[in-house]
Amino acid sequence: xxxxxxxxxxxxxxxxxxxxxxxxxxxxxxxxxxxxxxxxxxxxxxxxxxxxxxxxxxxxxxxxxxxxxxxxxxxxxxxxxxxxxxxxxxxxxxxxxxxxxxxxxxxxxxxxxxxxxxxxxxxxxxxxxxxxxxxxxxxxxxxxxxxxxxxxxxxxxxxxxxxxxxxxxxxxxxxxxxxxxxxxxxxxxxxxxxxxxxxxxxxxxxxxxxxxxxxx
Amino acid sequence: xxxxxxxxxxxxxxxxxxxxxxxxxxxxxxxxxxxxxxxxxxxxxxxxxxxxxxxxxxxxxxxxxxxxxxxxxxxxxxxxxxxxxxxxxxxxxxxxxxxxxxxxxxxxxxxxxxxxxxxxxxxxxxxxxxxxxxxxxxxxxxxxxxxxxxxxxxxxxxxxxxxxxxxxxxxxxxxxxxxxxxxxxxxxxxxxxxxxxxxxxxxxxxxxxxxxxxxxxxxxxxxxxxxxxxxxxxxxxxxxxxxxx
Lengths: 216, 245
Hints:
The structure holds two protein chains of two kinds. By secondary structure, chain A is an alpha/beta fold. Chain A has helices spanning 9-23, 30-37, 41-60, 80-88, 103-109, 151-156, 184-191, and strands spanning 68-72, 92-97, 119-124, 138-141, 163-169, 196-203, 209-215. In chain A, helix 3 (41-60) packs parallel to helix 4. Chain B has a single domain, classed as Spore Coat Polysaccharide Biosynthesis Protein SpsA, Chain A (Alpha-Beta Complex), CATH 3.90.550. In chain B, 38% of the residues are buried.
């Protein structure tokens, strides 16, 4: 059972340096709220949940690989990246974001992976509009409530034979939650997943109910 | 043929009284020859052109509001539309100065209102949430064909676009403006002191007085038309501008 991120000296150095840099630069103050929103107990809970279930599936299915991963709307990806690398041996991780503003911060938070065997990139594009140019073992979208249903992504990338790891919520109280669902089954249906390895729900520390489905 | 064309768009009947007001303001404030058209769902006057309805079926209430404005970006949809230099004006505006200025602009890129009253860092903070765009499509200036890529983008991705964006300005902000490097954008913003907002001010942070007339600027926006706007007031109810409008 994975219940933490490994707090290494380099991780601490990377994160502290980003916080210091943002806090001391008035021009970057707008990033403070975003980074703190992305660094909550609930954010980590949902990522740990995802990694544990993914790890279980991998253990029980020799055909499931997790080396190459695309994250859709991964934001700063500072919580999920060490989990993917340390727990399920991912070495190529591409974070597809519409928000160019997170790119440099995400690189700085994950700087310790530079010049290692891990290939981490932030790719600025909208995956609901532009198709992918390469294949991945796993597609992770922990922000399905923020975007068009995932069936569109599958339509745009018909040749992709990846494992889909999707999270969403029924919490409609946020203006940017434009695609909430009321159950894991609804998430499966709107994503047009055919083979399901896991489905479940979890109440997070902030009171939000999140759904997780893993399938193809 | 007259090259300069001024457009407005109207659907429903909430703004019926505004067309004549806008037309009179333009007559008073445009010193060069121009064509005038109103793109509308209910053509009655000589200057009216029928709005298409092809995107009606994609509309989701409260999302991608005012999508009908985007039809004008494809001039081919309106066979009798004349001119090559287009200036779009919202109905709820106050024109202070000669509109010739807009037709004399250098047009390497199309122009849109960049709300200089907005704190760009708030827009950047909220970018991922698709809110707080700095753009405002109440005044748009383009040459024939320049905005066709926007029409084509919507047409190609209409399911995603109509689902994902609350307003067309948020859509423009995400896809046709570079909030991080503004001079690299598809659109060019009208310069500061051209267009200001009655309700939001002029330039952040130094000139944010609201409900203030600035006659040395070109146009004042009222932007009263957002759906579900609880504080809605018609321009003809605003004491300070009654005599000007």
